[in-house]
Design brief:
This protein is mostly beta strands. The chain has 1 helix and 10 strands.
Length: 223
């Protein structure tokens, strides 16, 4: 298993919407966790890209929201003795899609803004996918806390890497690995995504966008 971690998770939306930040749901970030090599007797499972995805939701402080997906390009999960040892999930940041708007009704404009492929002055407002075309989440360990599986690892966005952890439902069989994360939130400003952040800029009024991005992670890996 390689130790490098590239860039990840791209979501937040500009005219985003509803619900205020819920700090209880926002994962803590810490310095990166040291990567480990897979054991020689670990079994690698390749991520099935067509059956894996990230779901995101972004919101404005004044209400309203947008949601969409990001494609998982590839990756690998290493299993030893029936348990996940480590792994890496690679995200295609150029695949950011908005699902609550129809074509011709603002969908293309919002997607271009999130990707940074629209107006030149907005290139780095969010994810700047031409400069940062991929993202990754590197799984460093799985632990059990209060009867739940807790996934720990390194999340990198726009060349900024932070360690996070979140609860997930995990199933491991001889043929496949399934990871379905409970909905959790990340504070986008921790990865230098600060466009219209009320905690970074003053007097934004109804233009202020929540720092928190809600995420659901769905991963399937097979032999």
């Amino acid at each position: 298993m390689k130790k490098n971690v590239i860039t990840l998770f791209a979501f937040a939306a500009l005219s985003l919407t509803a619900c205020k930040n819920d700090p209880k749901n926002t994962v803590d970030t810490t310095d990166t966790i040291e990567s480990t090599e897979a054991s020689k007797d670990a079994t690698p499972f390749s991520i099935a890209a067509a059956e894996s995805k990230v779901e995101w939701t972004g919101s404005k402080l004044t209400g309203g929201k947008h949601h969409g997906t990001i494609t998982i390009a590839n990756g690998e999960i290493n299993v030893k003795d029936g348990k996940i040892e480590n792994g890496k999930i690679v995200f295609d940041m150029k695949s950011i899609a908005v699902e609550d708007l129809k074509a011709g009704d603002g969908k293309e404009d919002l997607e271009a803004h999130l990707k940074g492929t629209g107006k030149e002055e907005a290139t780095d407002h969010f994810f700047n996918v031409n400069k940062y075309p991929q993202g990754t989440f590197e799984i460093t360990s799985i632990t059990e806390e209060n009867g739940k599986s807790i996934v720990s690892g390194n999340l990198t966005l726009k060349d900024v890497t932070k360690a996070i952890k979140f609860p997930a439902m995990i199933t491991v069989t001889d043929k496949e690995v399934m990871i379905h994360a409970d909905e959790f939130a990340i504070n986008r400003t921790q990865w230098n995504i600060s466009f219209n952040s009320n905690s970074v800029f003053d007097n934004l009024g109804d233009k202020a966008i929540n720092d928190d991005i809600l995420i659901k992670l769905h991963v399937k890996a097979t032999k």
